[in-house]
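hey can u check if this looks right to u? its 64 residues, i copy pasted from the old doc so theres a chance i mangled smth
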Amino acid sequence: MQFYNLKTRSHVDVPDADVRKIKMVRKTKTGEQTRYAFTANHGGTKLFKFVNEATYKASSAQEA
């Protein structure tokens, strides 16, 4: 899977076995906000890739 590394400002390919999916829920004054993301470590840098709910559910990555 391809991530964008903000530290080096370049695209990085990470093996699918190293990718985890995470669901972040936070409360706002009007309700709850849910964000879906993939996360991975590459070269000591933690990488995030935000995706929509359909992509999150279709992925076979393990949950973090």
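The longest helix spans residues 53-58.
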